[in-house]
Amino acid sequence: EQGPVLITHWGMSGPAVLKLSAWGARELAQCEYRFTAQINWIGETNEAEASAALDNTMATFRKKKLANACPFELPRKFWEYILEKAGCNPDSPWMDTSKKERNRLLNMLLNDCYEVNG
């Protein structure tokens, strides 16, 4: 499913989660609501375009900290969370980002996974 997601202290909710729960009720019940959810945080399905957006940010904001120059429309705190989850230092400048870090970040934005229980 696609749509807005609300991140709470206890997990996720919002229109996309509710639609997924409604449309996949039978399948979800069969697996006792235990599964891995794969989330694309930026809505971009073309990996090359998402990669180009990261490369453009790296070139344009070379001296800015990763935390201060998000190439996508993500809340600042959430962007910092994604950076840290991808193993990137939010306080380092874009020009110091290695190819390995960049690829981990791209993968996190396009294919973030969460275990669902319930």
Features:
118 residues, alpha+beta, Helicase, Ruva Protein, domain 3, two-stranded antiparallel ribbon, two-stranded antiparallel sheet, 4 strands, 44% helix, elongated
What would your notes on this structure say?
- This protein is an alpha+beta fold.
- The chain has a domain of 74 residues: Helicase, Ruva Protein, domain 3.
- Helix content is 44%, strand content 14%.
- The protein has a two-stranded antiparallel sheet.
- Strand 1 and strand 2 form a beta hairpin.
- Helix 3 packs across helix 5.
- It is elongated.
- The mean pLDDT is 92.
Summary?
With 118 residues, the protein is of the alpha+beta class.
Low-pLDDT residue intervals, each spanning 5 or more residues = none
State Rg. Answer: 16 Å
Report how far apart the termini are: 18 Å
Number of strands: 4
Q: What's the architecture of one domain in CATH terms?
A: Orthogonal Bundle
CATH fold category name of one domain: Helicase, Ruva Protein, domain 3
Overall shape: it is elongated
- Strands ordered across the widest β-sheet: 1-2
Task: Give the averaged pLDDT, no decimals.
Answer: 92
**Backbone structural class:** alpha+beta
Oligomer: single chain
Please summarize the sheet with the most strands: 2 strands, antiparallel
Binned, the helix content reads 40-55%
CATH class of one domain reads Mainly Alpha
Q: What pattern of helices and strands is seen along the backbone?
A: EEHHEHHHE
